[in-house]
């Protein structure tokens, strides 16, 4: 599902809201999650999951085309861990 599909789906389920207002709400939520992660904070949505930032140390990588060694600097990457309710929902079919 893309962001625009999410906005359309929420607007469809809430006819009392204008689509531009739903778009503003969704964008604000995503912007706040991104801002919190950029500050190094953790964002937890109960039942859905938690977003956090993990630090990857500098390492020596390899260029797949040439096989040449390449220095890869340290970096931070976003990480998502699903919540128990979401995991249970996804695995309900296998039970």
From TrEMBL:
Keyword presence, Glycoprotein: no
GO biological process entries: DNA recombination; regulation of DNA-templated transcription; regulation of translation
Primary gene name: ihfB
Record-linked InterPro entries: Hist_DNA-bd, Histone-like_DNA-bd_CS, IHF-like_DNA-bd_dom_sf, IHF_beta
Function: This protein is one of the two subunits of integration host factor, a specific DNA-binding protein that functions in genetic recombination as well as in transcriptional and translational control.
NCBIfam families on file: hip (TIGR00988), PRK00199.1 (NF001222)
SMART domains: BHL
Record-linked Gene3D superfamilies: IHF-like DNA-binding proteins (4.10.520.10)
Protein name: Integration host factor subunit beta
Source organism: Insolitispirillum peregrinum
A cellular component annotation (GO) from this entry: cytosol
Molecular function (Gene Ontology), one example: DNA binding
Subunit structure: Heterodimer of an alpha and a beta chain.
Keyword set, alphabetical order: DNA recombination, DNA-binding, Transcription, Transcription regulation, Translation regulation
Family: Belongs to the bacterial histone-like protein family.
């Amino acid at each position: 599902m893309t962001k625009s599909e999410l906005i359309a789906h929420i607007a469809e389920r809430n006819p009392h809201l204008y689509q531009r207002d739903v778009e503003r709400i969704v964008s604000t939520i995503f912007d706040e999650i991104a801002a919190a992660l950029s500050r190094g904070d953790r964002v937890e949505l109960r039942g859905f999951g938690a977003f956090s930032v993990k630090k990857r140390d500098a390492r020596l990588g390899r260029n797949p085309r040439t096989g040449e060694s390449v220095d890869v600097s340290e970096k931070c990457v976003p990480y998502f861990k699903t919540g128990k309710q979401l995991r249970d929902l996804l695995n309900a079919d296998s039970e």
